[in-house]
Amino acid sequence: MRSSLISNRRLIILLAGLVTPAMQVLGESAYVTENSKAASLESCVAPTDDMRRNHMDFLRHGRDDTVRDGVRGLEYSLAGCIDCHASTDAAGKAVSVVGKGEFCQACHGYVAVSPACFQCHRTTPDSTAERGSLGYRFDADSRHPIGRPVDRETDHEQ
Amino acid sequence: MSNKCGPPSTDRRRFIGGTLAAAGAMTLAPGVILHAVAANDKATAGASGEHRWGMVIDTDRCADGCSACVDACNKEHGLEGQGRPATDAVWIRPVKLKDRQTGHVNRLVMMCQHCEHPPCVDVCPTNASFKRVDGVVLVDRHRCIGCRYCMMACPYKARSFVHEALSNQSVNAPRGKGCVESCTLCVHRIDAGVMRTACQDACEKEGHAAIVFGDLKDPKSEIRRVLKTHDSVQIRADLELNTGVRYLNL
Fold it and tell me: What is this model's ipTM?
């Protein structure tokens, strides 16, 4: 019994020795796809290892804050992921992040985890929504205090 | 094996104590919890109970044959029909009412009435249908299971069900197959501080200006001024839902 335990332990150490370099190779493999905005940046909104391990939790917390409480412009936003990580093809057109070998699919395909995000969320940056006007797409400077009508203010005076 | 001999480890106790202390630090008062995300200076404050967003629609100004508001809504939220009118998503729709005795025709647009006491929220088994603190009634698609109870419960037939898989949705309104949806009162604009809805913009651009959107709790707002000076009605007021959408000249 004891000898089998010891041999098991040796086996585990041997396996660990073999697997660790393989994991490092995987770890150092490309985090980002070429021709994406992310490829030109030092790191994501959090350190890369943190994002790799915890991105699903960051998004899960943020989604309730946004949908139910109306908190926009969060640091962790799915639309932000897509904007930064979607690559472009030779014609400069955005490629879906769930396309084969693309940012989301590459890892999720490998670990056989199917993200439900894209049943509702788009998989390429939205070029039709103008920056600075609608949705989460506004600059900090252009934001008006909630509740103060922007254009109707002059009407009140009349 | 080592757990069974020696004194019991206090690690677990220390861990529990630490967790409670951390939880205490995050709780300012009962019911008031400081969210970690709120510290992010880029994030907006979110919906506030100091407001209640609503709308007034002047049926006299709603022009026959005009569909500017519907088109604007579709464009704003990326609603694309499949060419099947019976099941295509409609968030705002024109309605004609004819008095058979007198022949008088009323025209109005019907959408989610953003009730104070919404029946769709009452019946939802997963809390997907909910009312924000600022009175906007929404569907949380992360929770919606597509049972369509809310569609049955809504007296205004305001909700649609997405029957087919979608792609290239608008970033303003992520939406997908198997979920119920309806007018959001352009909540993405409200959150961004743009206090005008897409339908209101379109109606004004057409020169009709039949739609006024605003804060029902702000006594100085345009919508309150209109409601104070005109005789308005709620549709199916007998249900006592206290709708956020009111109609003039109906």
Answer: 0.78
